[in-house]
Amino acid sequence: MTALIDEHPRLGVEPVLRELHIPPSTYYRWRRAGTEPCGRRRQDAELTDRIRQVHQDSGGIYGSPRVHAVLRREGVHVGRKRVERLMRQAGLAGISPRRGKGFTRRDPDADLAPDLVQRDFTAPAPNRLWVTDLTMISTREGPLWLSAIRDAFSRRVVAWETFAHADADLVLSSLEYALASREVAPGELVHHADHGTQYTSIKLTTRLVRAGIQASMGSVGDSFDNALAENLWILVKTECIRGRTFATRAQANLALFEYIDGFYNPRRIQKRLGYLSPIEFEEKHYADQAAPKPVNLKPRQPALTS
């Protein structure tokens, strides 16, 4: 209606409204709605700007559940359905993970450690269960092999190393870095890997024994037996590597540093962690451990005397 009157200004507003039996108050309310958006629309516009910023800060990774969680953490009271609608209208979406290719090579003559995990990737505290694995990242310079160790309690990547070759020295280097950066009590930690030759090597198994760490191994060809480590590769390949071409290993290494140390460990919130990042989850655990326990001040009942 407003467009029709704007196209034919010579007809005049009042005559047109009379002919169409539209009250002038209704027409002018329509006009104001077009030039002065209602409060709900203004809120949607402001909220969409904030949603776009959260989505951008995540590198375009977060979908509506995590965007909603970030907004709630910031004190923005908004429903998840509304966040979904605004993201859909703004053309924003998270990244869907894809399962990668396995690279396990088994030594048939190696002595294998027992499976102490049995697919139960939970731990009561940090440094009780570490899972580890290898994956390959392609560059124009050649393959870059990534070894990482992940804590099952907080899902934090406690150590990672890269090298041009997937050998025992690479996995040993990542283990040494993890031991140097974490406080590990002898006899309390389980180190879980697959049957790859790097993990059955004399170098690694000897170092585990010296550190008082129990070795554990899942089966070959079954990603569920090392699912927590496989899940990390899915995240890295989806959120850091997908769609990127690296000219050199150094470029790929920098991208991994920015993702793991700059985003994943300190900032990437996870539903299983109560929408906290791995570092936040560990900090909360240690803060809870250090908090004084409540004292029972209830007075004792006097003993009954005969």
TrEMBL record:
GO molecular function: nucleic acid binding
A Pfam family the protein falls into: rve_2
GO BP field: DNA integration
Coiled-coil ranges from the UniProt annotation: none
Record Gene3D superfamilies: Ribonuclease H-like superfamily/Ribonuclease H (3.30.420.10)
Stretches assigned to the Integrase catalytic domain: 122-286
InterPro entries: HTH-like_dom, Integrase_cat-core, RNaseH-like_sf, RNaseH_sf, Transpos_IS3, Transposase_IS3/IS150/IS904
Name recorded for this polypeptide: IS3 family transposase
Organism field: Streptomyces malaysiensis subsp. samsunensis
